[in-house]
Design goal:
- The chain has about 250 residues and is of the alpha/beta class.
- The chain has a domain of about 170 residues: GpdQ, catalytic alpha/beta sandwich domain (Purple Acid Phosphatase, chain A, domain 2), CATH 3.60.21.
- It has 7 helices and 13 strands.
- The strands form 3 sheets. It has a 6-stranded mixed sheet with strand order 6-5-4-1-12-13, covered by helices on one side.
- A hairpin with a 4-residue loop joins β10 and β11.
- The relative contact order is 0.18.
- The model has no long low-confidence stretch (mean pLDDT about 90).
């Protein structure tokens, strides 16, 4: 069987000051927004990811944009215009060498619901396949189940919710059929567990530490990156690229 290469990404959060963006973005007003130093670092990683293509498909596990930030009144955004965010997310995703895109909704707080920014990006912007809550995707004969939301834990047992999902997949195999790979997002971290027949994975994000994550203690340390899956002759291999953005050294002396 022909080898299939699939790129899986999550939580791009275009619009935030601490997420990926191109070097410059021109707003509808003509104003030009220039990426900050942190965003330039993240963008280089994005281009690195693109350079590892081509891919048979790109799976987006939700949250292409950061949204209008109605709680924070937009002070952490370079733009709260959803149209701008969707357009820039679409341009970023079109940089990836592929002909197929698949996506699901992220959190309603970030992407809305009717219609969601994720749907606008995946369906209208990319001409891809979109589902609001979940997708079952056949990759070289292996079934990937993709959904955004998964529970988390403030303890060191971060894989508990993912392990539960794998258990549910086994218990309900008569309903859903055999699921080989469970893909989740939302946590802005990388978690991977496996048994003899299943792989479960939480995909890292493209957004660094912001005020929200800082307010949830040092335990909430975002991991950025992506995962490339290869499926050939019934075998699943994957390569996860994970990175963190280091805080600038404190310079004040008391």
């Amino acid at each position: 069987m022909t080898k299939k290469r699939v790129l899986v990404i999550d939580s791009i959060h275009v619009g935030s000051h601490v997420s990926v963006m191109p070097p410059t973005v021109e707003l509808p007003t003509g104003e030009v927004i220039v990426a900050n130093d942190l965003q330039k670092i993240i963008f280089l990683r994005w281009m690195e990811m693109c350079g590892k293509g081509p891919y048979d498909a790109v799976i987006i596990a939700g949250e292409t944009v950061d949204g209008d930030d109605r709680r924070g009144k937009g002070y952490t955004k370079w733009s709260t215009d959803i149209r701008v965010q969707v357009n820039v997310a679409t341009k970023l995703l079109k940089m990836i060498p592929t002909k197929k895109y698949y996506g699901v909704n992220g959190s309603p707080y970030h992407v809305g619901q009717n219609m969601s920014a994720d749907q606008a990006c995946v369906e209208l912007g990319l001409g891809g396949t979109f589902a609001p809550s979940e997708l079952f995707i056949d990759v070289g004969g292996k079934i990937f189940h993709v959904s955004h939301k998964i529970g988390g834990s403030s303890t060191f047992h971060k894989a508990s919710s993912l392990n539960n999902e794998m258990t549910f997949a086994k218990l309900h195999e008569d309903v859903y059929g055999k699921i080989d790979v469970i893909i989740r997002g939302h946590r802005h971290s990388y978690i991977q567990i496996a048994d003899a027949k299943h792989i479960g994975m939480v995909i890292p994000a493209w957004k660094a530490r912001d005020d929200f994550s800082a307010s949830h203690t040092l335990n909430y340390t975002p991991e950025l990156g992506y995962v490339i899956f290869e499926v050939e002759d019934g075998k699943i291999d994957f390569d996860a690229t994970i990175f963190t953005i280091e805080k600038e050294p404190t310079t004040d002396v008391v």
